[in-house]
Amino acid sequence: MFAREEDVLEAAARWRREGRAVALATVVETWGSAPRPVGSHLAIDGEGNFLGSVSGGCVEGAVVAEAAEVIAQGAPRLLEFGVADATAWQVGLSCGGRIAVYVEKVD
Question: First-to-last CA distance in the chain?
């Protein structure tokens, strides 16, 4: 779901104030044709609800799944998706580019 970046960050802060477990995914690097620019965010809560976008929809499912593990374990992760990566084809990133997404728990 596309939303303004400030709306995504505000949602993450609001969810934490409400007592929800929250992770924030951020595009930290892109190469070639990437669907979303560096700095794009996806906020995810412990129940799998999310707001924002890191890939125009093509890898959000994989990022949400990884975010659940980040919330459970507390350790951040750096994820990379690209056309040379078999995972990228599985999740639909066939735009010709690559993205790196940093996922961290919000405390």
Answer: 23
Cα angle 107-34-41, degrees, rounded to a multiple of 5? 20
Q: Which residues does 3 contact at the CB level (< 8 Å), separation at least 6?
A: 11, 51, 52, 53
Three-state DSSP class for residue 76 = coil
What 3-state class would DSSP assign to 65?
A: helix
Q: Could you read off the pLDDT of 50-91 as tens digits, one per residue?
A: 999 998 777 889 999 999 999 999 999 999 987 555 555 555
Structure tokens at 52: 């924002």
Question: What are 33-42's pLDDT values in tens digits?
Answer: 788 899 999 9
State pTM to two decimals.
0.86
SS3 label, residue 103: strand
Angle (CA) 43-33-36 rounded to 5° is 20
